[in-house]
Write a structure and sequence with these properties.
Pfam families: UQCC2_CBP6. The chain is an all-alpha fold. The chain contains eight helices and no strands. Helix 1 (3-12) runs parallel beside helix 4.
């Protein structure tokens, strides 16, 4: 398997955004477009791939694999102070719940948006 094929596989394996899963605004679509512009099909299908192009592909592949594996989360774990700030302990829980409700098409009522009512969680 060529490195370019491996790079495209890693890019296509990124999960879709929960708010618009079928939309064109996915990270994988953007990265795939960058790869296709940087390494056009005429260049990628040639038998001899240049070492400069090979190094460029490797420089893209390594960080994407680290993002995919979650290496930074293991190297730099988040403390409870970060996950539950003192001024608003339910802040991130409300964000996650809002994203989940938005993905189901459930919005907040106009008066909650207008008065900026936070709610329980």
């Amino acid at each position: 398997m060529s490195r370019l094929t491996r790079l495209l596989e890693v890019i296509r394996s990124f999960p879709s955004t929960p708010l618009r899963p079928e939309g064109p605004t996915q990270m994988s679509h953007a990265l795939e477009g960058i790869v296709n512009r940087s390494f056009p099909p005429s260049t990628s299908s040639s038998v001899s791939v240049g070492s400069a192009q090979d190094r460029a592909i490797e420089r893209m592949l390594t960080p994407l694999e680290r993002i995919k594996s979650g290496a930074a989360l293991h190297q730099y774990p988040l403390s409870s102070k970060t996950l539950q700030p003192q001024h608003d302990p339910l802040y991130y829980k409300r964000i996650l719940d809002g994203v989940e409700r938005a993905s189901k098409g459930i919005g907040r009522s106009w008066w909650k948006r207008f008065f900026q009512v936070r709610g329980e969680a």
